[in-house]
Amino acid sequence: MKHLDWNTLSGQGRAEALVRPAQSVSGETRVAVAQTIAAVRKGGDAALIELTRRLDRCELESLRVSENEFAAAERSLSSELKDAIAEARERIERFHRACAPQAIRVETAPGVVCERLLRPIARVGLYVPAGGAPLPSTALMLGVPASIAGCHEVVLCTPPRADGGCDETVLFVARLCGIRTVLKLGGAQAIAAMAYGSESVPRCDKVFGPGNAWVTEAKVQVAGDPDGPAIDMPAGPSEVLIIADANADPVFVAADLLAQAEHGADSQAILVSPSVDLIDAVTVCVDRLCQRLPRAGIATRSLAHGCLIKVESLQQAINVSNAYAPEHLIIHTLQPRDLLDSVISAGSIFLGAWSPESVGDYCSGTNHVLPTYGAARSWSGLSVASFQKQITVQGLSAAGLRAIGPCAMTIARAEQLEAHALAIGLRLDALENAA
Length: 435
Hints:
By secondary structure, this protein is α/β, with parallel strands linked by helices. It folds into three domains: 205 residues, 3-Layer(aba) Sandwich (Rossmann fold); 145 residues, Rossmann fold (3-Layer(aba) Sandwich); 38 residues, Single alpha-helices involved in coiled-coils or other helix-helix interfaces, CATH 1.20.5.1300. The chain is 45% helix and 17% strand. It is built from 15 helices and 14 strands.
């Protein structure tokens, strides 16, 4: 990890210090993804089975997970793991229900009633990767808010293993969340299937979930098609920025940096601190702890993109964080809540020594599907609202139209939209004549 002093860097140097690992998609990948999408649209299930055979080296007779497979998956898991998943689901549901949008009804003027109705997105597609390791936590983070939102149909795609089965924990979570339609599909072909449908895969109105460069490119391409679905948010490699003072435990800080680094070689971990002693201690701890990790090679490559930044104060550290707009922000200081009001851009924040980012990944209750690559400047993490539409309603009485009609007519004429004014004026004239 690079050691930098923020106050000795030029403007360009500061910008370069916060650059993410290159998120490049080659022209060949774009073309290959486009070809995959076209093949699925044309060939349906047959194309999906052939792509799975060729890309996943898996022969499938059926794309759908059967009831027997769901039952076998549940039997194969330990009671300890099933209990932990159920416990995590309960907390995720409790938090997301509390945060869910509410229908409202407001009288904005006498006789003028405005409302907001909530309607679920009818059919949603969830993608749960299984490349480096299975991700049942992602199935929870997608499945729980979809269930609370009341989506009429939820489709989940997850890549099959070579033996034709899917990860048992992902299947258990799907059933726990009430998801009945699970497909053995991965990669760009899974996104294409949910975007456009096939004999076995229902066509979805919106597609959610993380994935590799092929999955991300496929989501971008189908979302850019007027005939395609919406997608959840911009996606990129995972990242963390830690703000720590001299009171922070360097072992804890190092562990949090490594927890992010082991996600993938393109993940990024940054420490910002006014304490040189802490930075030096964290450097030693990172090297020591990394040697204990099964994914040490991945973490080491990731840490090459990271940096340890010396600043003058905690407020300057917040300024650095806001400029970076991290997916995960850990404030590991003596009084972390004192800095909270100064945070402008972050996907999710973790306060104090006893709030590792790992709990947010699994079971604190918040969602771990978060904006990355600077998208936290304008995007929020996944929530129940992501699976709903908000529809406004207005109803006016005759008195209400008399009260606000002239206001609307004045603005309409300022915009040179005379028909708008006419639609109101004719009604006001009718009311006047009736009177």
